[in-house]
Amino acid sequence: MSICELRGVSKTYGSGAVEVHAVRNVSLSIEVGEFTAFVGPSGSGKTTLLNQVGCLDTPSAGEVLIQGRGTGDLGDKQLAALRASEIGFIFQSFNLIPVLTASENVELALSLAGESGGKQRAVELLDQVGLEGLANRRPNQLSGGQQQRVAIARALVKKPSLVIADEPTANLDSANGEAVLDLMRQLNQDLGVTFLFSTHDPMVMKHATRIVTLHDGEVVSDERKET
Amino acid sequence: MSLFTLALRNLFRAKRRVVLSSAAIVVGVFYLIIGQSFIGGMNESIVRSAEDGLTGHLLLRPADYPKFGAAYPVDVLLTLTPDARTLLAGEATAWTERQIFSVTASSSGDSLRLRGIGYDPVRDPSVFSRQVWEVDGVIPETAEQGVLLTSGAARLLELKAGDSVVLQARTHKGAINALEVPIAGLVTTTNMAIDRTSVYVPQALTRDLIRSELPSHIGVKLAHRDEAFGFGDRLLAAQGSTAEVLTWFDETKDLLRMQEIRSKALNMLVAVLMLMSSLAIANTILMAAHERTREIGTLRAMGMTKARVLALFLTEGGLMGVGAGLLGAVLGGGGAYYLSLNPVNLANFAGNGMGDQLQFSSWLYGEFSWPIVLIPVLVSIVVAVLASIYPARVASKMVVAEAVRAE
Ligand SMILES: Nc1ncnc2c1ncn2[C@@H]1O[C@H](COP(=O)(O)OP(=O)(O)OP(=O)(O)O)[C@@H](O)[C@H]1O
Ligand SMILES: [Mg+2]
Fold first, then answer.
1. DSSP characters for B59-86?
2. How far apart are CA B398 and CA B296, in angstroms?
3. The predicted structure's pLDDT at residue B196
4. Arithmetic mean of pLDDT, B176-193
5. Does chain B have fewer CB atoms within 10 Å around its N or its C terminus?
6. What is the pLDDT at residue A203?
7. Cα distance from B47 to chain A (closest Cα, Å)?
8. What residues in chain A have per-residue pLDDT under 50?
9. Whole-prediction pTM value?
């Protein structure tokens, strides 16, 4: 089943002489359980495309469907609700809320998704991503690798249908990057969570079940690996 | 994780900046409370001084009585009509006759023109309260005991209790009359219009001096000062056009109007302070919104709506108003409460002669009341929330895709 489908999506920044076609007429479909990597040179449109998939931005042309439903005419409230319950985000710079502890960051995601019973589920999930005993630390008391694990727990706690990660290992050293990737791959296999990355990291590509290559905003290849 | 907790933590994170930018609100609230407390206290003191000093709740006196200056004629006196007498007996809480007359007091060499207050020893205190009087000696009740001289006048004449003084006045018919009388006591009434300018003379002695039993004034006390206006009209109707009525309000309205101007000036000053602090708060919240761009983007990506982001920043601004307002209220309210129990004596600051014409007590109490304390807190909350609207809108309108990747 398709979790997310792009139909002829384009994104153009600016207009006239300074017009940038960041994404050009991309159509593709993300299936349940996939571990997909968007690769391509810098400026090829990976981040822009992820923004469209994650409903953080609206396409200039084309349509984004999440679980078969079009998102083009949703308002701020409905888009927010969609992101809150269906889509988890992991960022290159971790993006934890600095005034909240690790477990509170995770709880916040749950409460925004309108679910209760936060604290216990947050701590359980933090244990599961290898952060036993660190639940009450603030982000500035955690290493980069630990922060990204909190971010993974935060993205997963609401059981989203899709987790989007834009260069999740770019700010980590190779050992930490690999550990974080192993964790995501494991969660993908154990829990069946669908992941969608952008990356320059060959490590990520090695783990991916599907690699979509972009160039100048266009999909130039789309390969599925047999697992 | 409530919006409120998040807002509180964010404020705590930037506490130094928050404290600095809301300091003006603390000062404004403090200043407003203390100022209004003093003005309120002064208003009460002005009214009380009139009530307890020379006017009572209201005064009946001969028509066309001189309004200004130190002339206290006794050529025309009052004869109460039976109707007026019935009304007073039936509805006034208390009433008393006074003979107010011009008198020259002389000691060896010095002489001083004073206001003589001829009083009924029994009934006078029930209309004109002596609660705050300080008396050195005794309050005379008979002609033989002599007079009660105000302390300011005694100082000018270099007299003390037990000395004697020569009083010279015109009789009802205009002849000159003089008596040497003992000084039974000295009094400080704390009413600045009385303390240097008057001598209290018991009724029997006054009658010897002005040679008439008729009063020049009837002082009236009612159940409540607000009844003075209605009662005054009826008393005048009963007495007829030979008399006029002066209420505590007639006597104090000029001073009270000055107080209103003072109050407006204070409010304007505080409004300027509040405006300044609203700019400081707006600036602080705007800085916070920019600094926290990535955080705002993240919250939006996690599913927070624009409206909730707006509410978050308004809450942060509002909390600054609550905190600063409450701190100012505790300081100002504490000060006002203290001043309501421990008055300041203006006589300690006033130069010689100042205040002779001012009918209010030299003891200045602060007024303490909940509206005086709580209204400024509400004002500061409203100011802080209004100041946060613009920065909160900036925060809520950020483009999510860009905000999540901001540095
Ligand atoms: N907000 C924007 N305004 C104008 N142009 C933009 C904006 N965001 C991206 N672009 C342009 O769109 C193109 C695609 O950018 P995008 O960030 O999607 O690339 P990317 O593949 O993620 O690159 P990288 O690997 O460096 O992250 C680039 O040419 C970029 O300059
Ligand atoms: Mg990118």
1. EEEETT---SSS----SS-----HHHHH
2. 8
3. 87
4. 93
5. C
6. 80
7. 56
8. none
9. 0.84
Contacts 24+ apart (CB under 8 A), B252-257: B252/B46, B252/B47, B252/B50, B252/B359, B255/B46, B255/B358, B255/B359, B255/B360, B256/B43, B256/B46, B256/B47
**Which of A12, A13, A51, A171 has most ligand 1 atoms within 8 Å of CB, for mutation?**
A13
Count of alpha carbons within 13 Å of B322, Cβ hemisphere only? 10
ipTM of predicted assembly, 2 dp: 0.95
Number of domains in chain A: 1
Sheet with A35-39, edge to edge strand ranges: A87-90, A162-166, A195-198, A35-39, A210-215, A218-224
Q: What mean pLDDT comes out for the span B49-61?
A: 94
CA distance A55 to A77: 12
Q: Which residue of A85, A99, A112 is in closest CB contact with B13? A: A99
Residue A5 placed within a domain: no
B327: pLDDT strictly greater than 80: yes
Query: How far away, in angstroms, is A61 Cα from ligand 2 center?
Result: 20
Cβ-based neighbours of B268, under 8 Å, separated by 6 or more: none
Q: What is the distance in angstroms between the CA of the first residue and the CA of the last residue of chain A?
A: 18
Rounded to the nearest angstrom, the gap between the alpha carbon of residue B184 and the centroid of all alpha carbons in its chain is 33
Q: How confident is the model at residue B357 (pLDDT cuts 50, 70, 90)?
A: very low
Set of chain B residues whose Cβ sits within 8 Å of the Cβ of A108: 1, 302
A81 to chain B: closest CA residue: B303
CB pairs under 8 A between A and B: 73
Question: Cβ contact (<8 Å) for B307 and A51?
Answer: no
Q: How many CA atoms lie within 13 A of A149 on its CB side?
A: 27
Q: Does the structure show a pLDDT above 90 at B56?
A: yes
B18 interfaces chain A, CB cutoff of 8 Å: no
Query: Which of A46, A91, A200 to mutate to test ligand 1, by most ligand atoms within 8 A of the CB atom?
Result: A46
CATH number for the domain including A172? 3.40.50.300
Contact indicator for B116, B160 with CB cutoff of 8 Å: no
Work out the end-to-end distance of chain B between its first and last CA atoms, rounded to an integer number of angstroms.
25
In a domain, A195, yes or no: yes
Which residue from B276, B292, B286 is spatially nearest to B388, judged by alpha carbons?
Answer: B286
The verdict on residue A96 lying in a domain is yes
Q: Is residue B343 pLDDT above 90, yes or no?
A: no
Q: Please answer whether residues A188 and A197 qualify as being in contact, where contact means their C-beta atoms are separated by less than 8 angstroms.
A: no
Distance between CA B63 and CA B78 in Å, rounded? 10
Banded model confidence at residue B361, pLDDT cuts 50, 70, 90: low
Domain annotation covers residue A108 = yes
Q: Which domain holds residue A94?
A: 34-56+81-222
**Closest approach atom of ligand 1 to CA A13:** 4
By Cβ distance, the residue of B1, B301, B303 closest to A104 is: B1
In which band, very low, low, confident or very high, does the pLDDT at B355 lie, cut at 50, 70 and 90?
very low
Q: B1 and chain A: CB distance < 8 Å anywhere? A: yes
Q: Of the candidates B249, B300, B278, which has an alpha carbon nearest to the alpha carbon of residue B389? A: B278
